[in-house]
Amino acid sequence: MTTTALPPSGSAGTDLTRGAATDTVLVLDFGSQYTQLIARRIRELNVYCELIAGTAPASEIARHHPRGLILSGGPASVYDDGALHPDPAIYQMGIPILGICYGMQLLADDLGGRVKASQRREYGLASVVVDSEDGVFAGLPTEMSVWMSHGDVIEELPAGFRSVAHTVNSPVAAMSGPGGRIGIQFHPEVAHTPQGVELLRNFLYQTCGCSGSWHAESFVGHAVEEIRQRVGAEQVICALSGGVDSAVAATLVHRAVGDQLTCVFVDNGLLRRGEGDRVIEALGRSMRMKIVRVEAEERFLRALQGVVDPEEKRRIVGREFIAAFEEENRRLGGVPFLAQGTLYPDVIESTAADTFGAQKIKTHHNVGGLPQGMRFSLVEPLRYLFKDEVRRVGRALEMPDDVIQRQPFPGPGLAIRIIGEVTKDRLETVRSADWVVIDEIKRSGLYHRVWQSFAILTPVSSVGVMGDLRTYANVVAVRIVQSDDGMTADWARVPYDVLSDISRRIVNEVPGVNRVVYDISSKPPSTIEWE
Ligand code: XMP
What we know:
It is built from 14 helices and 18 strands. It is globular. The chain has helices at about 35-45, 60-65, 100-110, 195-205, 215-230, 245-255, 275-285, 295-305, 310-330, 345-355, 385-395, 400-405, 425-445, 495-510, and strands at about 25-30, 50-55, 70, 95-100, 115-130, 145-155, 160-165, 175, 180-185, 235-240, 260-265, 290-295, 335-340, 375-380, 450-465, 470-480, 490, 515-520.
């Protein structure tokens, strides 16, 4: 896992979220795989939180006016050559600091204690005994189950610190020092530490004195105000994709500047059945937004003709989208502002990839990432939000449930769910099969309990028998996964009866299909989409 570095705030878009919160807590990221999770937990506790590179200068940290800092875990040892340390000036800022795992060892090392490799590493569940029932442990049991993942221990505490919890293997499982400086060896942010949320709550509310003013509703009010200030009397354009993020971003902007917003919906012919109409209906007719619908199916199909390589398909869909969108923008006379539904994970991921050259698995295309070379000022009201927060904002905006609860759908659409060439016929096949999957998953009450459910048209033909006749027809794969954020996923253990109904209906209702298989791969090593 790489360390993330965020771009200077406000560099690309409006910096809306921070204005909505009176209290901010920053997580200094030293490369733990759980860093995003810490930020989410804190926001779930109604305190606004952002990630920042672990080595960010104290001056940059101070610009956020944080009430407290959290030093994340990380893969290194603090005594390694080149191990990342925070700017020493953070210890002069006079605000509480919670060090988690590697973060606790940083506190110890930076403040004059000593850390060494342990003979007895702790990975997985451990039982921690609390020796001091105040501070972050106030109200918690004296013995509790926690998640550990470390090979180093604190040999000598820094001056003024005392050990406040231990395990059989670590005499210092938590330490407390003057000025609200606390270290914990275990991970409070993971579900395997059941009391972890309470511990974080104590840190935020008791140690840092946060008031818990971060709510979707308060966010809407502040975001609307900031958009108004930024945009003034100018025009804004927004590309709707049919997905949740662009719909919520557009609705926020519309709430702020009304008819100064024009939404462009490029129908690329690669959407699910009825999707285009539903978007126009929900946002255009019900919410009274100005929406231009661009019928571009022919254009996309022509460009995709004969193409089988997944990355090539993604590039083509991205390129054609830009071209179609640019044409529309020119027709509108060149609009100065572009509203996008960029989310916080996109910001973190793309920055990490840009900065550290992380391996590219797929070129993600979404309208959020497109306007390279296009001269717009960006309005990105969701730039600091996680997906579940976007849904909450959507609800606060009274958007229709089926728009905000819709399962994610990739930018390149059905083109990457047809393995091999994309043709009109094959699109119709996968679209019909997809419709059956969604219909059955909704009927069984599972639609909101899984992350995604869809059909893939494989390039395989198989022999079958229908009536008394031999068939030689397409194989459709069904993929249903559970996931928290799309980064990892597992195949869903859907009841056999539901799978059976899906299979029977696809073979009966979708011409040219005689076999259905269920994908039982997790991510990693597979990905959610097949291409
Ligand atoms: P993978 O296939 O990478 O997908 O495991 C992870 C999640 O991202 C979605 N996905 C995309 N979303 N543009 C998007 O907006 C894309 O190009 C894209 N490719 C994949 C995928 O549906 C899953 O939810």
